[in-house]
Write a structure and sequence with these properties.
The structure is a homodimer. Chain A is mostly helical. The first copy, chain A, contains 7 helices and 2 strands. A two-stranded antiparallel ribbon of chain A has the order 1-2. Chain A is elongated. The model of chain A has no long low-confidence stretch (mean pLDDT about 95). Chains A and B meet through α1, α4, α5, α6 and α7 of A and α1, α4, α5, α6 and α7 of B. The structure holds a DNA duplex.
Chain lengths: ~190, ~190
DNA sequence: TTACGCATGTAAGAGGTTACATGATTTT
DNA sequence: AAAATCATGTAACCTCTTACATGCGTAA
């Protein structure tokens, strides 16, 4: 099984939307893709050099432009071709590592109150995520008519919202169920 | 930020449920935890030796027992204490890497039909997952009265089902939306 | 001018997968 | 007897994070 370098296509994709420096790429991940993707500087900067040497990206602004220290890159024709080919290939799932569920699974060792606290933290995190996603949804909606990218962005946000709704509903019911179990236990 | 060795507590947790060999631990991950956790042999076997040398686990059967080649381990008192302390600590979220959504996000480069195919593959995978989870749900339900662990297992399966339901609903609507967009495009 | 944020980067090393090796036991 | 499966393990290698270094521009 070949190992796919996932960072490569995230970066190519971001650069295909306009010139970005390494710093910009990181920002884009944090501000736009955060709920389904992330990258670190240690991945981004070396990769930018590699991709440039492979001819998949190139510097967009001549280095002599005054004032701006940023080195922004754009994808070349070869890069665009590579990116398009990747879009066609089947996706691979991330190996799952849900630490909350791992704790819940073994929570009989600690009892319901510990589990309740963990799930409540999860609920709080999902609540915050949901707020962010709703704002993103509203912003994208405005662009739907003019921007042909927007429908795809909308889809990703929509899945994010559905998942966080599902998690919130689960949290509420799970906490109730555990509270009932806790009182039953203390009454017996 | 310290890096938490997540494998450690998965293994301690599994061993806390009874004697398991390295092979058993892997099996347990694949057959029981699969939808939210995974481990590879390359992680499991070396870790078992480490944990034994740290006194957190010990061999359960004396090596002289005939017939059975398996070396099964159980957690010691120290291991149980470590595990309990971990259950109380706040969980940390897995850094997100959803390759399907990454492809969808950039899918304007390839057009709706490519996206539709990808999402349909996702739908098929979720459908299969859902079937497995429903079986697990039925099995756990039978144990609920006798087994104090079962309520926690049920919670994890329940979240798995809710998430896969949300994903399936999204797939259906996303495909419809993209099909409409595809026909609009070809008619213009 | 000191301090802080911007921006680019690297080194060290943790974490993790894959592919292979080995031998025993069971099945065909 | 051959093939498949059980079971334990390791070596090589990749991926990725973290922490730090560096220097520039700008605000206090």
């Amino acid at each position: 099984m070949e190992r796919t370098n996932r960072t490569k296509f995230a970066v190519l994709g971001i650069l295909s939307m306009g010139p970005h420096s390494g710093y910009d790429v990181k920002k884009f991940c944090e501000e736009v893709l955060a709920y389904f993707w992330h990258e670190s500087y240690g991945q981004i900067y070396p990769l930018l050099h590699t991709l440039e040497s492979e001819g998949l990206i190139r510097k967009s602004r001549p280095t002599d432009t005054t004032k701006d220290r940023r080195v922004a890159y754009v994808v070349t024709a070869a890069g665009k071709k590579d990116l398009a080919a990747w879009l066609e290939r089947p996706f691979s799932e991330q190996a799952p590592r849900n630490e909350l569920l791992l704790k819940v699974f073994f929570s009989n060792l600690a009892g319901p109150n510990v589990a309740i606290r963990q799930i409540d933290d999860y609920r709080a995190a999902q609540k915050m995520l949901q707020k962010v996603l709703k704002e993103a949804q509203a912003n994208i909606e405005k662009e739907l008519d003019q921007n042909p990218d927007a429908i795809y962005w909308q889809l990703t946000v929509d899945l994010g919202l559905r998942l966080s709704n599902a998690r919130l509903a689960w949290c509420r019911e799970a906490i109730q169920k555990l509270q009932r179990a806790a009182t039953r236990k203390s009454n017996s």
